Amino acid sequence: MEIKSILLSSIRVDGGTQSRASLYQNAIDDYAAAIQDGASFPPIIVFYDGKHHWLADGFHRFNAHRQIDRMEIDAEVRQGTRRDAILHSVGANASHGLRRSNDDKRRAVLTLLNDAEWSKWSDREIARRCAVSDKTVASLRPVTSEIRSEERTYTTKHGTVATMNTAAIGKPKVIENDAGDSDQYDPWTPRTIAPAEQIEQAQAKAERQAQQAEFDRQREEHTAALPPEIQAIEAAKKSAIETRKSKPAEIGLTDADRIAELEEAVRVLEAENAKLTAENKLYGEMRVQFEQGGFENVIAGKDEEIRALQTRLYRESEDKASWMRSAKYWQDEAKKLGYSRNTVIDLETGEIIDG
């Protein structure tokens, strides 16, 4: 492994090593402008197989350099094949660079699941490689398994190998005319769905499941990070909701009673929300400090606040002492001129009002 400057023209980006769902032109533009202003970016990562440099990490940086007609770019060169580059790319940007979207994560997982070798790995291993949850991998695996099971290779009469989709074998055939209408339409017979549409529907369903799994994971992660007091409140509310669901509807409860009950529940929740919002505002900065450096960072932050307050108190005390000395001086000067303690002077005109 070494870091050196290499020609952009020597880097291969056409080998399926780009694991994002898409590149973001706004990010490329921002990177390009920053590079022109002299900004320094981390080197990209390429795998060298003895002939080609396969780009594995840094596609936005690479395109930013190419956009402003740079000839070379700093790269960390690792020894490896195109497949090594692909395997590295599926986990790239999990902890650095432009944050991955859910589509990026799904594409990374499907890259491994659609591969004959990598798809044999466990959900846990694929999740580790792609830096996602096991649930995400598990929800996407049935789609790729279904697609592979419906594909069968065979040799044509010309000696070439082709792929045959077997999903529709044994199913009733629906003939469509030029207008797209079925010539054998029977309203009592379920519509036959084409294999491509079945795959598309299965993929859409898997994507929704994967997205929901990711949302559940993020929610669980967020809940686990909440203070114990807030977790207790959330658990109590969840328990109350489940208890309410399990009870039969009260006999004789009118709509007005139910509305009043719900309004009271809303009032209680709004009060709790206001309380939690205030607590979050109070402890929000401490939480950020804790996430950045633990309790030591929180204590250091509080020490800095105390130091700033002590400095302010010392400065204001000095100001007060200075004003007291100044007032004493002028009081003495006034006495020398014959003014008493009860003398009142109009500060605007300088005239004596009472003396």
From TrEMBL:
<feature type="domain" description="ParB-like N-terminal">
    <location>
        <begin position="4"/>
        <end position="93"/>
    </location>
</feature>
<feature type="region of interest" description="Disordered">
    <location>
        <begin position="200"/>
        <end position="229"/>
    </location>
</feature>
<protein>
    <recommendedName>
        <fullName>ParB-like N-terminal domain-containing protein</fullName>
    </recommendedName>
</protein>
<feature type="compositionally biased region" description="Basic and acidic residues">
    <location>
        <begin position="214"/>
        <end position="223"/>
    </location>
</feature>
<feature type="compositionally biased region" description="Low complexity">
    <location>
        <begin position="200"/>
        <end position="213"/>
    </location>
</feature>
<dbReference type="Pfam" id="PF02195">
    <property type="entry name" value="ParB_N"/>
</dbReference>
<dbReference type="InterPro" id="IPR036086">
    <property type="entry name" value="ParB/Sulfiredoxin_sf"/>
</dbReference>
<dbReference type="InterPro" id="IPR003115">
    <property type="entry name" value="ParB_N"/>
</dbReference>
